[in-house]
Structure formats: structure tokens, C-alpha cells
Design brief:
Helix content: 55-70%
Mean pLDDT: 91
Low-confidence stretches: none
Number of helices: 3
Number of domains: 1
Strand content: under 5%
Shape: elongated
Largest sheet: none
Radius of gyration: 16 Å
Number of strands: 0
Order of helices and strands: HHH
Oligomer: single chain
């Protein structure tokens, strides 16, 4: 169902650009607020098919007390 999933994928990409630290679970909540209801498995599957990922956190360098 690529035609049916296209609008959902567009909304996911827009929201992930706006909230880069949120994954598929949190984006699903935002989609629900916009009126797009999805099951959690379908949301995760579309998230992966769109190639979306949460960027890895960078390690902070600790300062050495002298």
C-alpha cells in the first residue's frame, strides 16, 4: 500500500526533522495528535522503511581536574 503509506511517511519525515531526538514511538504520538492513527508495529515498520533513525548521542569529554 505505498499510496496509502505515502502521506504517513511524509508526516514522519517532517516530524523527525522537527524533533530529531524522538524515535518511532514518540512520533506515533504526534501523528495521533494530527489525526493519523497507526498501530505500533505498522509505525515501526514504516519508520524503518523510510530509513529514519535517531542520531547517536555524542560522547562528552570530561574535563580533568588538575
Amino acid at each position: 500500500m505505498p499510496i496509502k503509506d505515502a502521506t504517513v511517511t511524509e508526516a514522519m519525515q517532517r516530524l523527525s526533522g522537527q524533533y530529531p531526538r524522538f524515535g518511532s514511538r514518540r512520533i506515533r504520538v504526534f501523528l495521533g495528535r494530527e489525526g493519523i492513527e497507526l498501530g505500533k508495529e505498522r509505525c515501526a515498520r514504516l519508520w524503518a522503511q523510510a530509513g529514519l533513525q535517531v542520531p547517536a548521542k555524542r560522547k562528552r569529554r570530561r574535563t580533568v581536574a588538575a
